[in-house]
Amino acid sequence: QVHLVESGGGLVQSGGSLRLSCTASGGSVYIYGMGWFRQAPGKEREFVAAISRSGDATYYADSVKGRFAISSDNAKNTVYLQMNRLSAEDTADYYCALRVAELSLSTQLKYEHYYNYWGQGTRVTVSS
Fold first, then answer.
1. Which of 23, 30, 57, 122 might form a disulfide with 52, Cβ 3.0–4.6 angstroms?
2. Which among 44, 15, 45 is positioned nearest to 127, based on CA atoms?
3. What are residue 84's phi and psi, to 5 degrees?
4. 3-state secondary structure of 12
5. Where residue 100 falls among pLDDT bands split at 50, 70, 90?
6. Phi and psi for 64 in degrees, rounded to 5?
7. What's the pLDDT tens digit per position in 14-52?
8. Helix, strand, or coil here: 59?
């Protein structure tokens, strides 16, 4: 059984930065890609960023492009989300997700139903 544990959330002032981490554990698993999603109060969960295993392919939601950066350390089974220039609109619970099987297109990593495992989430609150 694979477990994903997120960390790094917290309270930050508008314009500030945070770095989220997510580590997969629980045995040997082939990671095709990992992603970050978020859910703001009263809203549906939405895609934030995703990265393929090789790191060659990264995808971002338009709302975070240029401010957030996703990266990974395959040796540690860990994915990171560096979040800069945060605003109140970024306040949400952030979830990491893991895809263990090949996809026909890496762009499918933008869609939550393609993921096999999910973390419990870490809360990010941006004060204005």
1. 57
2. 15
3. -115, 160
4. strand
5. very high
6. -120, -5
7. 999 999 999 999 877 788 999 999 999 999 999 999 999
8. strand
Structure tokens at 71: 């990266």
Structure-derived torsion over alpha carbons of residues 57, 27, 96, 109, reported in degrees to the nearest 10: 30
Tokens, residue 51: 């990265």
**Token pair belonging to 11:** 């309270």
Residue 114, CB-side half-sphere exposure with 13 Å CA sphere: 21
Two tokens, residue 115? 């993921």
Report the alpha-carbon distance of residue 94 to residue 108 in Å, rounded.
19
Q: Which residues contact 113 (CB under 8 A, 6 or more apart)?
A: none
State the average pLDDT for the chain.
95
